[in-house]
Specification:
With about 150 residues, this protein is an alpha+beta fold. It has helices at about 5-15, 65-75, 75-85, 90-95, 100-105, 110-135, and strands at about 20-30, 30-40, 40-45, 140. The radius of gyration is 16 Å and the shape is globular.
Length: about 150
């Protein structure tokens, strides 16, 4: 489901039209993005894949600029883009991009626990930074049930 549809549903749930509401939508799954809507317009977004967003199943999440530049010089642009959006995130941190598998492993596996904590930190940081633009009207997450530590 796209962010605009989710924002529209969230506004409707509290008796508003999207053009009357401020909404932050967090899509948290294989790829992740956080988008702020103000009066029906997307006013800020983390992007997704290699364009940004918190870490996901294979999406790296934010990286320090110097580390990113070092990686770019070391392996080139095409490989860097692939690493950021296809071999990062939970896959790089735990060896698996299967969120159901990671949910089962989280209870006993410190590596998965650390990756889940990093995910929660990055997601909260992205949501919080966009929440300021949207104040308190609405918060909505399209969090899949299989996400480690998450609930539907």
């Amino acid at each position: 489901m796209n962010a605009r549809v989710t924002a529209r549903r969230a506004a409707h749930e509290v008796g508003k039209r999207l053009r009357e509401a401020r909404v932050v939508v967090a899509h948290l799954g294989a790829t992740t993005s956080v988008t702020a809507f103000d009066q029906g317009r997307a006013v800020d977004s983390t992007g997704t894949g290699s364009d940004g967003g918190p870490l996901g199943a294979m999406q790296s999440g934010p990286l320090p600029t110097r580390a990113l530049l070092d990686l770019l010089y070391e392996v080139g642009q095409e490989r860097t883009l692939h690493l950021l959006s296809g071999e990062g995130g939970f896959l790089a941190l735990t060896g698996s991009a299967n969120l159901k598998d990671l949910e089962m492993r989280e209870v006993e596996d410190p590596q998965v626990q650390a990756a889940a904590a990093a995910f929660v930190h990055q997601a909260c940081k992205a949501i919080g930074s966009r929440r300021g633009r949207c104040q308190d009207d609405l918060m909505r997450s399209s969090l899949p049930a299989a996400l480690p530590g998450g609930t539907p």
